[in-house]
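Hi support team,

I've been running sequence recovery on a batch of backbones for a student project. Most finish fine, but this one hangs at about 90% for roughly twenty minutes before it completes. I'm not sure whether the input is malformed or the queue is just slow. I've pasted the structure tokens below so you can try to reproduce it. Let me know if you need the job ID as well.

Thanks,
M.K.
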């Protein structure tokens, strides 16, 4: 009789845990790393299209951008250069992306190959870069972006 009671108790316990697991709040589909990688890919697409509205959505109000030539820009300067046509990206391919998450902060590193026009002059360059994202008000915002030029051999 004790065995039946114990077996019945185990069945009830397992059933309860299974029912709870099905009804428990589920995490958002995908991981933080996947969310950040999607934002990075969407950023590439937006940059190629000159979609400054997207940039305005993902840039923190106080973002600073260190360009591959060492100049420091605000998000407003970056957006203005895109809107005016001063900076036009023709192609961009990134690879070797790595994401590190620290609570509400994520750091992404990668490598990119870009072509386009800057101040009317054609360019072709490769960079390694790092972007820093922070969850602000429930949304991921880029607070810093930095690119380093890879010397052409």
């Amino acid at each position: 009789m004790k065995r039946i009671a114990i077996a019945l108790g185990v069945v009830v316990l397992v059933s309860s845990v299974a029912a709870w697991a099905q009804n428990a709040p589920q995490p958002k589909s995908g991981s933080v790393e996947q969310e950040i990688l999607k934002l990075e890919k969407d950023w590439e697409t937006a940059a190629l299209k000159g979609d400054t509205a997207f940039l305005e959505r993902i840039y923190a109000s106080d973002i600073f951008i260190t360009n591959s030539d060492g100049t420091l820009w605000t998000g407003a300067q970056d957006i203005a250069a895109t809107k005016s046509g001063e900076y036009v990206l023709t192609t961009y391919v990134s690879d070797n992306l790595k994401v590190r998450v620290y609570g509400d902060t994520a750091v992404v590193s990668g490598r990119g190959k870009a072509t386009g026009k800057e101040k009317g002059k054609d360019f072709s360059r490769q960079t390694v870069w790092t972007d820093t994202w922070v969850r602000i008000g429930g949304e991921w915002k880029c607070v810093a972006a930095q690119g380093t030029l890879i010397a052409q051999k």
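--
Follow-up from support: It reproduced on our side and the slowdown came from queue contention, not your input. DSSP finds four helices and six strands in the chain. No action needed from you.
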